[in-house]
Amino acid sequence: MIHAYGLSNGSLNKIYLDETIGRNPDFPVWIDIVAPNDEEREWIKRTYNLSLPRPEHLRDIEASARFYKENDEVHLRSDFLLGKESRSRSVTVAFVLFANILFSVHEEDLPVFYQMRMVNHGVSDLTDCKDVLIDLYSMDVEISADALEEVYGELGEVSSKVLNSRLSNKHAASVLVSIAHAEHLNGRIRRNLMDTRRAISFLMRSKLFTLTQLKDVRQIIRDIDSLDGHTSFLFDKINFLMDATISFINVNQNKVVRLFSVASVALLPPVLIASIYGMNFKHVPEFSWELGYPFALLLMLLSSAVPFWVFYKKNWLK
């Protein structure tokens, strides 16, 4: 699907594809292409003499493959966050600046692009295609900030559970799942922020921006630096909560092991008594005693009760 937008009084205005062929006043500054098929790719190539990048070429992570100039084209590959929950993922978007038009190619529609298409009709400060790209990066940083706030909220709930002195193993398992979700989302946000910083730095080095645009992108860089500090803090908090939760699990396991240890020690004397009187000898005095059997049972009971009483007094059973 192809969405084409021109500029009208500094704001985006959707135009039809047949209007993009003639270079009229509504000639597009932004063409957003979602999951293009072969026909749409061929139409772009025929109309604008531009070959759109293929999905298999969007996965490279080295800088030389993500940010480069080729002839009069400026190519960028940037990751955008899709979803704020534990199943969030990054979707790579290919940008091409060519002939004063911003081409964006992505396989899935993203909140940033949807908001840009819907919200920016009332904005009146866009001057060219580079302003559109700057606004897309700015909105992506805002979405990352919102996602970080959700991570803060989730970790706040986890902290209240972890700091509970009666954290059971069952609750600890759910806490570990929540921590893993928060770590996944926080790591995804940080990676996207780093990728956005690299893209903007490349554009700044390419000297494509006006002074006003440079002011805007420097503000985006400052916002990214601020959010980067938050992601570092959240990683430290996640590590602390993970260590604390595992420590609680170890404490609970030690309690179980201690009970078994106490039980084995307490039951050792009656086992010893039973072993003595279970020896198969002819001359055991108690064998001929009429009260020998109840005496042995009473002795076994007392020998097990005394250790339990001692352990109870020393609070070893708690």
UniProtKB/TrEMBL annotation:
Coarsely, its chief localization is membrane
* Reactions catalysed according to its record: Mg(2+)(in) = Mg(2+)(out)
Q: Which residues cross the membrane?
A: 256-279, 291-312
Q: How does the record say this protein sits in the membrane?
A: Multi-pass membrane protein
Kindly give the InterPro entries that the UniProt entry links to this protein.
CorA_cytoplasmic_dom (IPR045861), CorA_MIT (IPR050829), CorA_TM1_TM2 (IPR045863), MgTranspt_CorA/ZnTranspt_ZntB (IPR002523)
- Which Pfam families does the entry link to? CorA
SUPFAM superfamilies named in the record: CorA soluble domain-like (SSF143865), Magnesium transport protein CorA, transmembrane region (SSF144083)
Record keywords: Cell inner membrane, Cell membrane, Ion transport, Magnesium, Membrane, Transmembrane, Transmembrane helix, Transport
Compartment(s): Cell inner membrane
Please tell me one Gene Ontology term that the record gives under cellular component: plasma membrane
The record ties this protein, via Gene3D superfamilies, to: CorA soluble domain-like (3.30.460.20), Magnesium transport protein CorA, transmembrane region (1.20.58.340)
- Gene Ontology MF terms: cobalt ion transmembrane transporter activity; magnesium ion transmembrane transporter activity; nickel cation transmembrane transporter activity
Q: Does the keyword rRNA-binding apply?
A: no
Q: At the top level of its lineage, which domain of life is listed?
A: Bacteria
The UniProt similarity line reads: Belongs to the CorA metal ion transporter (MIT) (TC 1.A.35) family.
Q: What is this protein called in UniProt?
A: Magnesium transport protein CorA
What's the source species' lineage? Bacteria, Pseudomonadati, Pseudomonadota, Betaproteobacteria, Nitrosomonadales
